[in-house]
Structure prediction request, 211 residues.
Amino acid sequence: MFAIVEIAGLQYKVEQDQKLFVNRLKGDVGAKVSFEKVLLTVNGATTIGAPAVKGITVDAQILNHLKADKVIVFKKKRRKGYEKKNGHRQSLTQIQITGITGFDGAKKAPKKETAKADAAPKAEKPVAKVAKEETKTSAATGDRATVNFGEDHELNYHLKKNNLSQSKENRETLIALGKEVKEELGKKILTHEDVDAAIEKNITKFNELKK
Prediction:
């Protein structure tokens, strides 16, 4: 059994009773510390955190505070007469891992039932809205054989085709005529042939194109 844990900004692979040096920690010698940011555990099965494994903690005891060996930092710029020499000793803490706890509490909680089962069924949409949505769906799916009365360019196409003015008044007349034809034919969507036939039959209702 082992774990990958983040201690003082660095990641370590730790096991039971392992001793290791980490960056200086707060606390006196002999004090107990615990680390909750466990990134991965292996205890028969591997568990990867996102980013940390919930419910798992790594417990440790502080054994000693000390400094690492001196590191020489020497800087020089040639032909500039610049030389600088510094020494650095990193402050460290020696700890011993006393246990990795929380495996019983790390089990995933049962998923909550979806709210869809308790949600009330949606009210049925009015027939007019359903017909309008079906018309939009027909146009969106690329069915070029049908007419979408919600698009001005399609209305203008049929008006121009029959030498009629592409005015707002004519478009409104064509929309009203389309509703009448749908009821008469018992259709929810009209084809281009249906619209042209209706215009020819009711040509007197439209304003002609001015020459």
User: Anything to note?
Assistant: Residues 2-73+83-101 form one domain.
